[in-house]
Backbone:
């Protein structure tokens, strides 16, 4: 029996295996590209190391590619005969892996939560619960679980900065921006290379309309993040949003072409970040050329994976935006078939939210704005269930607003924009759109007030 750097027992006789697994978790938390290699070295030192096999399975599932499921199942099958000799914490990790591999994210989160009640310093379980809760849109639970373990952590416990950064993000998604910024900045002071903490502060600046500060906050060079894994593209995505809010659309497109594309490879294309940014740029009037084609081709190749509703939404967006409407509809058929073969959270979200969202996006891209407005308006308050952040899901709010305006469904457009200027009132474009709708409805007095608000708004975006 060995122990990790936080004093947690590891069922392995090999000190070397324990050291490499500890480093794998540290590398993963720091978004380095070396985490999987460290797991391999742990297994080279002890081929029977069950927790290392489990973490290898976790890392494979993070690829969000259906093709890796047989390898994950192999890890599960290898661990199962060892369960009786493992610690309770390790058994719960194995249970979580099996649930996640089966697509039951809620069950996996249950096992991680149960584990954390007894082992609150299990940094990997905390991070995985945080990530999967994020992909299920469960902000309050993210915050609750982090708060429940904080009492067991101190400044000198390895990885405490990562906990601070996670808590910052959970606070931000729950609307506590002041505390979120404080925790996030503390985490970055502790570890200036902590992408998650950097990103958590960026979310606060985005939600508060502080884009000028955001540009400065993310003034990193590509060389500084050269050894980081593809998550860096999402942080660059935030940088592009800040530039767009400042009216510097060419700078945002430059980030798209250079930094977001930098993580692409033959086997991985960052569809979610790229499709989301490209659509925003297109809606802002930018000529984006043929950039949809690569995203649509990759989405077509992955359209039957159905690993996460959040990913499926962006695959469908890329297909529809590229004009591949028949393929996008086949994607919806594939979603429906997959959901019909499952039970639980993913199937329910797919049927009730994801499919209507995708139908609405296809109608929008086809120019059928009335139908798009009707469908998207009906699910607009349920989209949180597909996961992602408030900032990421804001694209869908922009689309439904634009669909209502283009459909000349003025009462719906007024309602949506009335809500939008309260949540995104720092953006001139929102007030101007609101003023135009109010004018069309004959409400000249309120329209003029909206134009005055537009004149005072500090950001050029929508």
Residues:
């Amino acid at each position: 029996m060995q122990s990790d750097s936080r004093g947690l027992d590891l069922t392995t006789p090999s000190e070397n295996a324990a050291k490499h697994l500890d480093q794998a978790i540290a590398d993963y938390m720091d978004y380095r590209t070396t985490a999987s290699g460290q797991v391999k070295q742990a297994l080279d030192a002890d081929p029977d190391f069950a927790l290392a096999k489990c973490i290898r399975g976790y890392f494979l599932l993070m690829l969000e590619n259906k093709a890796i499921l047989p390898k994950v199942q192999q890890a599960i099958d290898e661990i199962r005969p060892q369960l009786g000799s493992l610690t309770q914490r390790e058994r719960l990790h194995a249970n979580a892996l099996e649930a996640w591999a089966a697509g039951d994210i809620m069950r996996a989160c249950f096992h991680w939560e149960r584990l954390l009640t007894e082992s609150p310093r299990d940094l990997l379980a905390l991070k995985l619960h945080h990530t999967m809760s994020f992909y299920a849109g469960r902000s309050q639970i993210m915050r609750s679980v982090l708060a429940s373990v904080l009492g067991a952590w101190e400044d000198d416990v390895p990885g405490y900065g990562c906990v601070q950064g996670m808590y910052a993000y959970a606070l931000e998604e729950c609307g506590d921006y002041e505390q979120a910024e404080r925790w996030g900045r503390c985490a970055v002071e502790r570890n200036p290379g902590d992408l998650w903490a950097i990103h958590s502060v960026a979310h606060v600046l985005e939600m508060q309309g502080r884009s000028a500060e955001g540009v400065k906050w993310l003034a990193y060079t590509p060389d500084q993040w050269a050894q980081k894994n593809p998550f860096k593209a999402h942080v660059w995505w935030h940088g592009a949003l800040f530039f767009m809010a400042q009216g510097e659309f060419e700078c945002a497109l430059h980030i798209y072409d250079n930094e977001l594309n930098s993580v692409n490879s033959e086997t991985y294309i960052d569809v979610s970040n790229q499709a989301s940014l490209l659509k925003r740029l297109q809606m802002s009037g930018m000529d984006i050329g043929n950039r949809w084609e690569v995203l649509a081709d990759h989405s077509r190749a992955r359209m039957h994976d159905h690993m996460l509703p959040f990913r499926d939404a962006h695959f469908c967006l890329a297909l529809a935006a590229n004009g591949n409407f028949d393929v996008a509809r086949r994607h919806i058929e594939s979603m429906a078939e997959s959901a019909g073969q499952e039970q639980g959270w993913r199937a329910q979200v797919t049927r009730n939210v994801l499919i209507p969202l995708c139908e609405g996006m296809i109608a929008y891209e086809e120019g059928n704005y009335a139908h798009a407005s009707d469908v998207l308006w009906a699910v607009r308050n349920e989209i949180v269930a597909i996961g992602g952040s408030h900032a990421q899901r804001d694209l869908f709010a922009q689309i439904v607003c634009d669909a209502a305006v283009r459909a000349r469904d003025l009462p719906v457009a007024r309602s949506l924009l009335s809500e939008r200027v309260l949540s995104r009132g720092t953006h001139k474009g929102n007030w101007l759109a609101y003023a135009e709708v109010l004018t069309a409805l004959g409400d000249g007095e309120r329209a003029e007030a909206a134009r005055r608000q537009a004149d005072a708004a500090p950001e050029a975006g929508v």
User: Anything to note?
Assistant: Residues 408-456 form one domain. Residues 345-366 form the longest helix (22 residues). DSSP finds 24 helices and two strands in the chain.
